Amino acid sequence: MTDTSTTSLWEGLQSVIAGRQFVDLTHAFHPGQPHFAAFPDEQREALFDLDKGDGFTAHRYTIVGQWGTHVDPPSHFIRGGRTLDQIPVEEMILPLVVLDISDRVAGNPDATPTLQDIQDWEIRNGTVPPGSFVALRTGWSRRWPDPEAMANRDSDGVSHTPGWSREVLSFLVEQRAVAAVGHEQTDTDPGLATSRQDFSLETYVLDQGRWQIELMANLDGLPESGAAVVASWPKPLGGSGFPARVFAIC
């Protein structure tokens, strides 16, 4: 028997996405890529290999959960916070808001967004939709996969990278009820903060029950409003982070 409701849904969806642009916002991960300094590098082993005469190829990957473009659920920083398997699939397809500070970052790698940036965005586009995913466009992903360029450390070892600001995150979470945030750099907090082991902004986001995507790619060229983001990841029981596959439809 044909499920007419499912057929109608698929046909309707096809009409919506026909002619739309699909933009992959995910870096392909690999050993030697940029990553949080305290984490070990990826190890990859071919347990079976077609090129060596085996009947199939299968790799074993040894990675930390926070590897490459990845999702951080609340449990990454917050005891008792939601784990990956507790985030419902309904939260994986969201309206996409792109907050662009890339011009400012080009002149100052320590730049962070301001409430004026949000106000200007809303003047152009209307109120930030509740339940949206807000991506911070900094242009930083152009430095991938160079670890030194991504960290951008000075002679004293201090990292100069853009990040979020508390005033903007508080506004987005408490006044606009966004569901999640994302960014191109390795951390939520700017490099000046992480260099002194200050991860208070990431702690804040996750403590509010939100999740985030780090090390996003290809935010350049996306419309600042009107697109949708799809973020998906494996479902480890009690998982505290995992590489994600993220894309935009615009």
TrEMBL record:
Q: Which InterPro entries match?
A: KFase/CYL, KFase_sf
Domain of life according to the entry = Bacteria
Name it: Cyclase
